[in-house]
UniProtKB/TrEMBL annotation:
Pfam families the UniProt entry points to: Abhydrolase_1
Protein name per its UniProtKB record: Pimeloyl-ACP methyl ester carboxylesterase
GO molecular function: catalytic activity
Occurrences of domain AB hydrolase-1 (ranges): 47-125
InterPro entries: AB_hydrolase_1, AB_hydrolase_fold
Amino acid sequence: MVRGLGTPRLDEPNTPVVLVPGPGAPGCLLRTPERLAQSGPVRLLGVPGSGDPSGPACPETLGPLADTVARWLATVPPGPVVLAGHSTGARVALHAAVRVPGRVRALVLPAPHVPAPPAAVAATARRAHPYGRP
C-alpha cells in the first residue's frame, strides 16, 4: 500500500542506495554510484543480463529478476534501502519492493520503461512499500 508520495530524505546516515539497471544497459548508471557515494553507501546490482556477455542471460520475464533482487535485499543490506531502478530496472525494482516491503525505505524510478497500461502500473504501485518513511 502506498502511504504517500514525496522526496525521500537521503541525508540520514548510512541509508544505502541500491541501483537496479535495466537489463543490457548498466552503462547508463556507471558514474552514478560515484556521485551518490558522497552521501552514503551505494550498490550497483549486477542482475542477470546486465553485465558480462558471457555471464547469465536475462530471463524472458521480469519475475525472476525481481525475485533475485528481493532475495538480495532480504539478506545482504543491514536495513532498509533506497531502491532505484532505471529503465526496465524500474519495473524490476517496483516488483522487488512489493516482495520485500520492509527492506525498502524509498523507491526511485528514473526513466522507467513501462509498456503496461497506466492502470496496471498504478495497481502495482499501490501494492509497493511507501515511497517515503513508513
